[in-house]
Design goal:
The chain is mainly α. The protein is built from two helices and no strands.
């Protein structure tokens, strides 16, 4: 099993890439799906930071 402190940054990066793909597909106007992916990336990034630096 992979530790969350190692896995969460990878998940955050995946969500950032998904948001970028959705954003570019919608011709520069952020869709609700792109904004949701960005929020998920922020959440996983903050939790990852907390796990690594607390």
């Amino acid at each position: 099993m992979v530790e969350p402190r190692i896995l969460f940054p990878v998940i955050a990066l995946v969500f950032v890439l998904l948001a970028a793909a959705r954003w570019s597909r919608s011709r520069g106007k952020p869709s609700s799906a792109a904004r949701t992916c960005l929020w998920m990336a922020v959440i996983f990034g903050v939790v990852s930071w907390w796990l690594n630096y607390r």
